[in-house]
Amino acid sequence: MAENINTTSLQCLATSFEEEPGRPVMISVDHVSMVFNMASEQLNNLKEYAIALARHELRFKELKALDDVSLEVRRGDVFGILGTNGSGKSTLLKIVAGVLEPTLGTCTINGNIAPLIELGAGFDLELTARENIYLNGALLGYPKKFIEQHFDDIVAFAEVEQFLDMPMKNYSSGMVARIAFAIATIIVPEILIVDEVLSVGDFMFQQKCERRIQELIKEHEVTVLIVSHNNDQIERLCNKAIWIEKGHPRLMGSAQDVCRIYRVLGGHTGKASSEQRVFDMLGRDVSPREELTRTISADDRYGSAVKLAELCHEGPSDTVIICPGEDASACLVGAGLGSTLDAPLLLTRSESLPDVTAHALRQYGASHVIALDRGCRLSPVVTSALEDEAGERKVTLLQKATIDELALAAFRAADQWGDTAVITWDGCTGDIISLLPFSQGERAPLFFNHDDGIIAPETLAALTSGAFRRLIVLGGTVSFPESCLEPLREAGLEVIRFCGKDAYDANGLIDDWIVTQGKRPRNLIITSIWNPFDALTAGPCAAASDSLIVLEDPGDLDSVARAIDYVEKMGPGIEHLVFLGDHTRFQELDKEILAKAASC
Predict the structure, then answer these.
(1) How high is the pLDDT of residue 295?
(2) DSSP string covering 24-43, please?
(3) Fewest beta carbons within 10 Å, which of 226, 252, 314, 350?
(4) Helix axis angle, 429-441 relative to 328-341, nearest 10°?
């Protein structure tokens, strides 16, 4: 999908706050715009530049780094600036610091400034730390006598006493940052400008920097302007914040409100209407019941597979299915095989058997392991590890060169299939996951085409053998043209095709169809399509718990808005919203939004 990041103002959505009377304005940015000229062609030397200038062929492309930004920072404010990379945050700080002159607008400063914009700028790495302290102090405008008076304090704060006479080229970047921060904050400025400084150094030093800044704020009423990609840090340190996106001011208000909205909308793609839908639901005055949302997550996809298997297979199991966790299509074939054999599906790495998988195998006490392998991904180390030490466990390796051959082999490995089959193309992962609650319950085998418009003769023979009455096709007319499906219809199969505009649209079509088949859900499983590996083994759990699967990617606001609509529609009968994946997939606010939709 092409990038579609909204930059229009959301100021009407901000919570207003009252300014404390009598506090003077320290920084006033009034309708500031900053335009940089970018050369439209490369000029390698002065001669080429002069020729282009004489011929009136010197052309530049304008880059508007800031577009009509206004803000006021009063004494004692800790003002945060949020935005994605390239949004103009550092440009704004440089204008405030006097490094850059704005193209339009004015910036008025009332007080002396200590800018922490580029720590370590001006250091000579060939010199020792001791020499660089004096050099950097001079560049910042401190007299030599002042540095001598505060030398011990600088060294103590930086914690580099033992390395003072070592050339700085032997320092780590964190040690350089320590010295630079110590020098820059040795005085008490009226205005402190901080640009991502608190993200350098080790964890303990970051905390030390924060304490130093908080000391300047609380004890000396220093005004602070801070840029950080760490929302928690902005929310913790600041009382006000502004969100800038691609140079455009989007929202300004209390740091808590701006950070909350930025977490959900910042840098995300999608239509303006989708953004508005998400924001409206975030602000909805609804209190979902506490037990509505659940989360299933583990350290990795292998642990997630074990957790999902345990939900449906608590006791011993004679057979276990093993698939390489890097091959989504093979895993989904394995899910179909597991449904008909009533066997848990576990995942493995190609080169080694994960400890969590090995432990689960012992817990199940399986006497038979069926391993699926497309393209010889599984190493002998894995197949050897699947056998128990006593040699009593049978290992069947279904190893084929292509996914359609592997799917056919899995079909032939069992004889208790239902009367519905599914066929799709390699890579149609989202649609297959969406269908899992139905296909698992119906014990439907999964087949693949050999190529666009081509179903291999052996696959066609299996589908038209009389074993099935219905075929579900996941894919459009490129993968499965009507001429490709005609022999299947002639064999008496009912052919049902699902083809959405994208994976999310197809997800809605499939979920709605499953409901028409009498599968009214009690639960909704929310999973991501950009990282679907937690969902590859969710089929048995979905079928056993009367769940539908809803695809949502928080970074795609169109998908979030569609999920809100669907959850709101299904909400009254939903017992649980089950989120697959850790906080890197779904933040607490992402869960809150859908929980509110289910409670409306």
Answers:
(1) 95
(2) PEEEEEEEEEEEEEEESS--
(3) 314
(4) 0
Distance from C-alpha of 533 to C-alpha of 235, rounded to nearest angstrom: 33
Class of domain 269-297+503-600: alpha beta
Instruction: Say how many residues make up the chain.
Output: 600
Q: What per-residue string of b and e applies to 268-291 under the rule 16 or more CB within 10 Å gives b?
A: bbbeeebbbbbbebbeeeeebeee
- Backbone phi, then psi, for 171, in 5-degree steps? -85, 150
Contact 476, 431 (CB under 8 A): no
Q: How wide is the angle at C-alpha 324 spanned by C-alphas 563 and 425, nearest 5°? A: 55
Q: Say which residue the tokens 């730390």 belong to.
A: 129
Q: Where are the beta strands (DSSP E) in 487-595?
A: 494-498, 523-527, 547-551, 576-580
Residue extents of the structural domains in the chain = 21-268, 269-297+503-600
Nearest CA among 327, 408, 319 for reference residue 370: 319
Tell me what pLDDT residue 534 has: 86
Exposure string for 402-432, b = 16+ CB within 10 A, e = fewer: ebbbbbbbbbebbeebbebbbbbbbebbbbb
- CATH architecture of the region 21-268: 3-Layer(aba) Sandwich (3.40)
- 426 vs 475: CA distance, rounded Å: 10
Among residues 243, 291, 272, 257, the alpha carbon closest in space to that of 589 is found at 257
Cβ atoms of 221 and 57 within 8 Å: the answer is no
As a whole number of angstroms, the distance between CA 58 and CA 248 comes to 29
- The dihedrals phi and psi of 107, each to the nearest 5 degrees, come to -135, 115
Give the 3-state secondary structure of residue 304: helix
With tokens 């093979």, the residue in question is 330
CB-CB contact of 263 with 583 (8 Å)? no
Question: How far is the C-alpha of 370 from the C-alpha of 406, rounded, in Å?
Answer: 12
Q: Are strands 25-39 and 104-109 parallel, antiparallel or unpaired?
A: antiparallel
Task: Locate the DSSP E strands across 359-465.
Answer: 368-374, 394-400, 420-424, 446-448
Strands, DSSP E only, in 221-324? 223-227, 240-245, 248-254, 293-296, 319-324
Q: Which residue carries 């011990």 as its tokens?
A: 152
412: tokens are 């032939």
Give the DSSP H/E element, type plus range, for residue 195. strand 191-195
pLDDT at residue 1, as a whole number: 37
Average pLDDT, consecutive stretches of 10 residues, N- to C-terminus, the chain (600 residues): 66 57 88 81 66 63 86 92 90 90 94 74 85 85 89 89 89 82 82 73 76 84 88 89 92 92 92 93 90 93 94 89 96 96 95 94 92 94 82 90 97 96 97 96 96 96 96 96 95 96 95 91 93 89 93 95 95 91 90 94
Torsion angles phi and psi, residue 282, rounded to 5: -60, -40
